[in-house]
Each structure stands twice: as structure tokens, then as C-alpha cells.
Amino acid sequence: MCAEEEKAGWVSVHGGHSGEFCHHATDSLEAVLERYAELGFSWVGISEHVPAPSPEFRYPDQVAAGLTPEFLYDRFVRYMARCRELQAAFRPRLQVLVAMESESYSGYETFMKNLMLKFKPDYIVGSVHHVSDMGFDYSTEQYRETADAVGGMDAMYCSYFDLQLEMIETLRPSVVGHFDLIRIFDKDYRLRMLKPEIARRITRNLEAVARYGLILDFNLRALYKGGLEPYVSDSILHQAVEMGITLVPGDDSHGVSQVGNFMEKGIGILKRAGASTIWPLPRPIDFSLL
């Protein structure tokens, strides 16, 4: 895979979760890819979640279903193998990139690097779904509990962006996933992100994204869930454009019915903000850095 650019069209830098390999998604991976091909996508990155390395880092739905870390790891092995098979099978019609979505909790540095070396993904999406080893994006109740545990909403935002910077510096992911996910259940996020201690961290992290030449996932799943705008929000989007940061749409689909959702709206937002709609392929992993 090379870093050649594709002209404007439908692509997804963060997508393709399937019920076959993700407990909170639906449909087979093949069916999901078939839908991308039907819609005329130029390329899609399939970025399944990495498995939880220990019981406490499982998602609540995985806990409820009794899925063990051993099961999750074995399923991830099957995911990587199946994704490579489908990558070859779809090649004449759709360019499929085999990726993985990182986590950022205690021990993630070694765990992620071991996964990257073992499975050799085409790229990784660097994401943060935990603060102080507590999840925050599963439900409003979980969100509030984590905020209370770390000293309030502002403190949770600051911790999130501090961990995100650490993840960027440590993993150098080709793509930074849903950059401002921390706002997911916060109705006052627009005002909160203007607070100096939070705004300073946002700018600092965007500077790191620009410095390393990473892609920002323009994640459309927020719209699917009823959000007012994608991740990233408008104020961050304009900062990123001014810094020359590349933004690429990600539908973050979790089943056939969600493939390509809100792509036209998302691309329109990017165009109005002055962002380029020539989508570069994610940069391959430099394994010498691991």
C-alpha cells in the first residue's frame, strides 16, 4: 500500500464494524463490504476494535454476554484472517484496507505494539474510549460515573485530551479516531471546549496531529446517534483546516444499514470549511518505530 491520493468520492477511513466480529454491531463482514462496493466507495478501512487484554477493560455489553478476554482475542485472530481474505476477494471492485482501532488504558502501549507486530495491519486508528481506565462512551450513566470519579466534567475532558496526546506520541497512529468523542453525552460541550484549560489541550493535540502528518477521522457516527455535528465539531474542524491537517470521512458503520450514512452531509461540511476532498490513503505503519 502506498500513500497515493484518491480523488473526491466516497471513502471511509474508520468503518466496517460487523456483527461477526463486534458484539454491538450487526451483519457479516462480507455483507458490510458488499454494501460499500454497491455504494461505489473507492476504498474503506475496516477498523475493528482490538480485544480487551483483561476482564476489567471489556465493554459492558461484552460483560453482559459473558465474553472472556480469551474469546475476544480468538475472535480478533479470526477477524484479521477473514479481513485479509475479503481484501483479496473484493480487490477488483473495492480497495479494502485492514486496520484495527486502538484502546488507551493501562498497559495499552505494550499491548498495542504487540498486536501491531503480530498482525501487521495496514494502519491503525488511534482512539480513546477510557479515562483513568474507566469507560465513558457506552451510556449517559457510565459517562456521569466516570466524570464524578475523576473530579467533574472539566477534569474528565482534560484527562481525555492528555491521554489522547500520550497515545498520539506513543503509537503514532495513521488516523486519530473521533478526536472529540469526550463530548458524546455533554449538552454543553461547545461552551466547555472554549474553557482555557480545555481549549489549550485541543490546540496542543491538533499541533501534534499536524506535526506527525496524521489524518483526522471526520467521524459521521455522531449524526447517526442524533448529534448536532460530526466528530470533529465545527470549532475544531476550522482549527484543523487552518493548520493544514487532513480530514477524511469515516462512517464508523456498525452494520449494512449504516454503511455510507450521512456521507453527503459530511462531505458538504468539509467543503464549506475549506477542507480538501482529495482523500489520501492512511500512511502505512512504520514498524521500525515500534
TrEMBL record:
Gene Ontology MF, one: histidinol-phosphatase activity
Enzyme class at the top of the EC tree: hydrolase
Domain of life: Bacteria
Reaction equations catalysed: L-histidinol phosphate + H2O = L-histidinol + phosphate
Entry's EC annotation: 3.1.3.15
GO biological process: L-histidine biosynthetic process
Ranges for domain PHP: 17-219
This protein's pathway: Amino-acid biosynthesis; L-histidine biosynthesis; L-histidine from 5-phospho-alpha-D-ribose 1-diphosphate: step 8/9
GO cellular component: cytoplasm
Pfam assignment, any one: PHP
Coiled coil, from the record: none
Keywords from the named record: Amino-acid biosynthesis, Histidine biosynthesis, Hydrolase
InterPro entries given in the database record: Histidinol_P_phosphatase_HisJ (IPR010140), PHP_dom (IPR004013), Pol/histidinol_Pase-like (IPR016195)
UniProt record similarity statement: Belongs to the PHP hydrolase family. HisK subfamily.
Protein name: Histidinol-phosphatase
Taxonomic placement: Bacteria, Pseudomonadati, Thermodesulfobacteriota, Desulfobacteria, Desulfobacterales
